[in-house]
Specification:
Radius of gyration: 19 Å
Oligomer: single chain
Helix content: 40-55%
Distance between the termini: 32 Å
Strand content: 15-25%
Number of strands: 9
Length: 304
């Protein structure tokens, strides 16, 4: 085992060690402990803190164009401090989901916009749900499976099997399933043909040939074309789903379907759908900027 492998395994052991206390505490106490963990992480992870601060600072001219951004406590440091606090809460909530202590969390979830899901499912061609790493995106999928209908989560395989096992135990609850992105295209088509709902998080770097450079907050970012391409080929509805924390509640908001432009060119329609997808994600982020993962290098790889 290499030194790098040992570090990964040590991280796994540390995670499992802190998850159990979060699960056995009362929910309110668990959330408060998660906030304390987030404040600690802000202090002891200067590299992540720096990445977040640099990212927001570089985007301020673009962000200031949004009225929703201007009403936030939106200095870079204020946002990043709260991002870390939300990461701590996420760990606390994830711990409860892992140990099946999810009843109170599921009760905290409210849905807005379910009529868009109902309308799309009447067509019988399935739904491609797009979301982002905002709030507790794992709870988004589980709440949907528990309260509405099971969904298939499109996921990347983690580098280490033991992290995969953690996420699989969480994601496979309430009738949900996982389709691994690298080998699951046929599964996606099959699931959509049953009028199923798949969930994709496209706010990650995906380079060519599976991704294209598309504007994201005023800068080109490698963005997956999978959602738009699937919508074009299957006729499935492309619908934005997001979750955010509001006090003790977790609010799931479902927006109207993203309509692909009318064009004879598939390439133009895929580009159009991908651009609109990024706009939907931007619009959610500026409403709840402290709940998106600014610590991820979303624009990496653009210059080589």
């Amino acid at each position: 085992m290499t030194l790098k492998d040992l570090k990964w395994y040590a991280a796994y052991i540390a995670l499992m060690t802190i998850m159990l206390p979060f699960a056995v505490m009362p929910l309110r106490l668990s959330v408060q402990a998660g906030k304390s963990l987030g404040r600690l992480l802000y202090l002891i992870l200067p590299k992540w803190r720096r990445i977040g601060l640099e990212t927001i600072t570089s985007l301020l001219p673009q962000l200031d164009r949004y009225p929703e951004w201007r009403v936030q406590p939106n200095t870079p440091d204020a946002v990043i401090r709260q991002v870390f606090i939300n990461i701590g809460v996420f760990v606390a909530e994830l711990s409860r989901l892992y140990f099946c202590k999810d009843a109170e969390l599921l009760k905290s979830v409210e849905f807005n916009g379910l009529e868009h899901v109902k309308k799309a499912r009447e067509r019988g061609r399935g739904i491609i749900g797009i979301t982002a790493h905002c709030g507790n995106w794992e709870l988004l999928a589980l709440a949907f499976g528990a309260s509405v209908t099971p969904v298939a989560v499109i996921a990347r395989t983690m580098k280490k099997d033991y992290f995969n096992r953690i996420l699989e135990k969480i994601r496979l609850q309430h009738g949900n399933k996982i389709i691994y992105r690298d080998s699951g295209v046929k599964e996606m088509f099959s699931f959509l043909k049953t009028n199923g709902i798949i969930g994709i998080l496209p706010d990650q770097v995906v380079k060519a040939p599976h991704g294209i450079l598309v504007d994201f907050f005023g800068k080109p970012a490698w963005t997956t074309v999978m959602p738009a391409k699937l919508a074009l080929k299957t006729g499935s509805a492309l619908i934005p789903f997001f979750i955010h924390r509001d006090g003790e509640k977790n609010i799931i908001t479902i927006y109207p379907e993203i309509e692909l432009m009318t064009s004879e060119s598939d390439e133009e329609r895929i580009l159009d759908g991908t651009v609109k997808m990024n706009r939907a994600i931007e619009n959610h982020i500026v409403r709840y900027p402290d709940q998106w993962n600014w610590l991820y290098r979303r624009w990496k790889g653009v210059n080589g």
